[in-house]
Design a protein that fits this description.
The complex is a heterodimer of chains A (165) and B (689). Helices cover 50% and strands 2% of the residues of chain A. With 165 residues, chain A is mainly alpha-helical. Chain B has one domain (3-517, 537-683): Quinoprotein alcohol dehydrogenase-like superfamily (Methanol Dehydrogenase, Chain A), CATH 2.140.10. Classes of the chains: A mainly alpha (165), B mainly beta (689). Chains A and B meet through helix 4, helix 5, helix 6, helix 7 and helix 8 of A and strand 27 and strand 30 of B.
């Protein structure tokens, strides 16, 4: 799936919910693609199963994770008494049905615990890419965005959807 | 476990019958005044989480409505998403810790109105704390005239407040506080600001002594074999003067020092008591559940049995002197911290009254002792266990394994435990499991190798079984009610630690992800810089589920009722709605799968006159309720579900209950995922107003 194309479709889907900045951004991206869109089938929003990050990004995220997160969440992301797991049943259930943007904002605003907000959006996006890779969501060709609004277009789905016909 | 199916079906039937029966309402029994209050973290110092209230019962639990709620976002400079507190309710006031500041708040227990708030701004010391956020709660003391509230700040200072005003009591310690990093029979290193030691549990006040343990950072990948030690201390509630100290790692010449070979008692740290402490005030005895020594999964730098690591220790309330101890795990290698309050129970064994203490555990054993002598109620013989081959490790060749009661949750992984909804799923699970070493409880970790094993697949270790919420005890039925995660799998693999990372030979990790020196962005990225080796991110990681379905078969989480007179199960049920991924699974469509419970390890229980009450730890979205979790009530005699009410987020702090102005309330802390912390109070609808 062409990533840019799909952003434009989703953006169009619930444009009412977007901030003015996001609408502007989306409009700019969308305009040259109008023709394409007209031919596309009904908008099919993306999920974590659609290759929303790259291997390279996840590797960068791994370095940051190990330095900033692993002490509490564990090298294997299994969590411990003081920090919840970032993989497995409870993690997947807690975020299932929400968006990657929700998870991104949660990390960005509250982590690392000793100094929330210290990491850049890029670092947070990279960490998130690493978390997705550990959770075995497939890597793709485009990196995860740094903008919460755009990340909110990517659904977090615990279970792999049935193959499309 | 086989019982479970019929119990689930029975629920519906029971509801139908109960609806038509008009269950008699208890005719305002004569409560001892204290029975309507919740004066300490675990309801009482025995850790029972029991109140004999019955206004909320099977006939009306579904009618519960929200009396009041309080978001904790503003009790700190940022919201908190991990609210684990259980409030107290004494003398008409509800007290709780709340928010990322670990503020203390006092509320009107009927309306939720904020009466006062106290917060300590600790700057760097707070930010460097190993255990931050709101903690589990606080302690109350009164001599009949004066009322005091005690809590420990994230920066490890014991603060004493006037319960009426929230203002510090200047005559206690140094202007209302005792710096717990001082006067600890050790120099906390490197300095008082950043020195690693703290606590998140609620203090315990027994008679006129306040007892404080200690906690540290997580110990999976420690930077050093050296760390501060987690001694336990008793302080005078009036003056803050230190009354006693118990060395959880013995000093030279003290009992147990010789269980640390090569002088390792000198430098090994941790071994604190980070969970709730239990006290028998009449006997004057304190029960200390001690955690693991430094380095959870590799003990090569601490050869020996390592007393009092993972040991239940009984000490004198007045002196802190050891009375008896029982080490649950010799030479700890599995992160089997004793993670919850010991439970005091007066039971009947062979017709004779016995004062017992029952200890739930991560490993799913309920260890039961005579609490005066420390003698096991049922034999706990030493059994041979697997000896591993991690270079430099020291192994205990036996471990104590209780003969009774049977383990109440899985504490090992075998092929038979793997998912078996369909033969194809079992095959895929076997494929994942084949990369690991499997075995029963006390199968040691392995060095992680890409060609296999990646590690030992364990359950009932770091997060499994019963964690900090612990269990409940019902003095009427002599039953312990205890939640356990029955599917919290932990791969225990070790990788050699580079010198820059740790001075320990092996730390937790997985092969295929050699520990790299960190590079800044752009570093080594210019033209002509060496190309990094092609290696997939997350290599060596294995997701412990199959397309979202848990790797093991249900039940994923259980509540078990265990009768302590007999050492036998009364009932066991799956606790928690079947996860969305299972209910909505295309693979499982058309299959009749009874409620599975959930994969979560922090569910606490409350027991009342008739009910066992516990919330869910996971979010679900069902036809009956929007995205959220349910607070469920079970008939305590049968385990049949008798009602459930909606919560907007999972239960993260154990529920408590009290009566005020003739009405019973249940308060529970919820949070998690995107939902910030909130205390919610439920009560029955008012009538005739």
């Amino acid at each position: 799936m062409n990533a840019r194309n799909s952003i434009q479709q989703e953006g169009d889907d619930d444009v009412n919910a977007k901030s003015p900045v996001a609408i502007l951004v989306l409009a700019v991206i969308a305009s040259p693609l109008c023709l394409l869109r007209a031919q596309a089938p009904a908008a099919e929003s993306r999920s974590v199963w659609d290759g929303v990050y790259t291997e390279e990004q996840a590797k960068r995220g791994e370095s940051v994770y190990r330095k900033e997160c692993a002490a509490c969440h564990g090298d294997l992301l299994a969590g411990a008494e003081s920090a919840p797991p970032l993989t497995g049943g409870a993690f997947l259930a807690n975020w299932n049905g929400l968006t990657i943007g929700d998870l991104f904002d949660r990390i960005r605003k509250t982590m690392p615990q000793s100094a929330p907000g210290r990491l850049t959006r890029q670092q947070n996006a990279d960490i998130l890419a690493f978390m997705l890779s550990v959770n075995k969501f497939p890597a793709g060709k485009t990196e995860l965005y740094r903008q919460s609004e755009m990340l909110k277009e990517i659904r977090f789905e615990a279970a792999k959807p049935a193959p499309k016909k | 476990m086989r019982e479970k199916k019929s119990k689930q079906l029975g629920t519906l039937l029971f509801l139908i019958i109960a609806g038509g029966l008009c269950l008699p309402v208890a005719a305002s029994p004569q409560f001892h005044p204290k029975d309507t209050e919740w004066p300490s973290y675990g309801a009482d110092l025995a850790g029972t989480r029991y109140r004999s209230l019955d206004q909320i019962n099977a006939s009306n639990f579904n009618d519960l409505e929200i009396a009041w709620r309080i978001k904790t976002d503003n009790f700190g400079d940022r919201p908190e998403y991990k609210l684990e507190g259980t409030p107290l309710m004494v003398n008409g006031v509800l007290y709780a810790t709340a928010g990322s500041r670990r503020a203390v708040i006092a509320l009107d227990p009927a309306s939720g109105e904020l009466l006062w708030i106290h917060g300590e701004h600790e700057g760097k010391r707070g930010a460097a704390a190993p255990r931050q956020l709101s903690g589990r709660g606080l302690a109350y003391w009164s001599d009949g005239r004066e009322e005091r509230i005690f809590y420990v700040t994230p920066g490890f200072r014991l603060v004493c407040l006037d319960a009426k005003t929230g203002v510090r009591i200047p005559s206690f310690g140094d202007n209302g506080e005792v710096d717990l990093k001082l006067n600890d029979d050790q120099d906390i290193f490197p300095d008082l600001t950043t020195g690693e030691i703290g606590i998140q549990s609620a203090p315990v006040v027994a008679k006129d002594t306040v007892i404080i343990g200690a906690a540290f950072r997580e110990g999976m990948t420690p930077k050093s074999m050296r760390n501060n030690k987690g001694y336990v201390r008793g302080f005078d509630v009036r003056t803050g003067k230190r009354l006693w100290i118990f060395h959880t790692i013995p000093k030279k010449s003290e009992f147990g020092y010789d269980t640390w070979d090569k002088g390792s008692a000198e430098y090994t740290g941790n071994t604190g008591v980070w969970t709730q402490i239990t006290v028998d005030e009449q006997l004057g005895l304190v029960y200390l559940p001690v955690e693991s020594p430094t380095s959870d999964f590799y003990g090569g730098h601490r050869p020996g049995n390592n007393l009092f690591g993972e040991t239940l220790v009984c000490v004198d309330l007045k002196t802190g002197e050891r009375k008896w101890h029982f080490q649950l795990v010799h030479h700890p290698l599995w992160d089997m911290d004793i993670s919850s309050a010991p439970i005091l129970a007066d039971i009947t064994i062979d017709g004779k009254p016995v004062k017992a203490v029952a200890q739930p555990s991560k490993q799913g054993f309920l260890y039961v002792f005579d609490r005066v002598t420390g003698k096991p109620i049922w034999p706990i013989p030493e059994r041979p266990v697997e000896v591993g081959n991690v270079p430099g490790e020291w192994y205990s060749h036996t471990q104590p394994i209780p003969t009774k009661p049977p383990a109440y949750s899985r504490n090992g992984v075998s092929i038979d435990d793997l998912i078996d909804f369909t033969p194809a799923l079992r095959e895929r699970a076997k494929e994942i499991a084949s990369k690991y070493h499997l075995g029963p409880v006390f199968t040691p970790p392995t060095v992680s190798k890409l060609e296999g094993p990646l590690g030992t697949l364990t359950m009932g270790t770091a997060s499994g079984g019963t964690n900090w919420p612990g269990g409940s005890y019902d003095p009427e039925t002599h039953n312990v009610y205890v939640y356990a995660c029955n599917s919290c799998i932990e791969p225990a693999g070790l990788v050699a630690a580079p010198k820059e990372v740790s001075d320990i030979a092996y730390i937790a990790g997985t092969a295929g992800r050699e520990v790299e020196i960190l590079h800044g962005p752009g570093e080594n990225a210019g033209a002509d810089s060496p190309r990094p080796p092609k290696k997939p991110a997350g290599g060596g990681f294995t997701r412990m589920d199959i397309d979202g379905l848990p790797l093991v078969k249900p039940p994923y989480g259980t509540i078990t009722a265990i009768n302590l007179d007999k050492g036998e199960f009364v009932w066991q049920i799956a606790h928690g709605e079947t996860p969305d991924v299972v209910r909505n699974s295309a693979i499982l469509k058309g299959m009749n799968i009874p409620r599975t419970g959930q994969t979560t390890y922090n569910v606490g229980t409350l027991v009342t006159k008739t009910l066992v009450i516990a919330g869910e730890g996971n979010i679900t979205t069902t036809a009956d309720h929007p995205r959220g979790a349910m607070l469920r009530a079970y008939d305590k005699m049968t385990g049949n579900e008798v009602g459930a009410v909606y919560m907007p987020a999972p239960q993260t702090g154990s529920p408590m209950t009290y009566m005020v102005n003739g009405k019973q309330y249940i308060v529970v802390a919820v949070s998690g995922g995107p939902y910030s912390g909130e205390y919610i109070a439920y009560t029955l609808p008012s009538t005739g107003e």
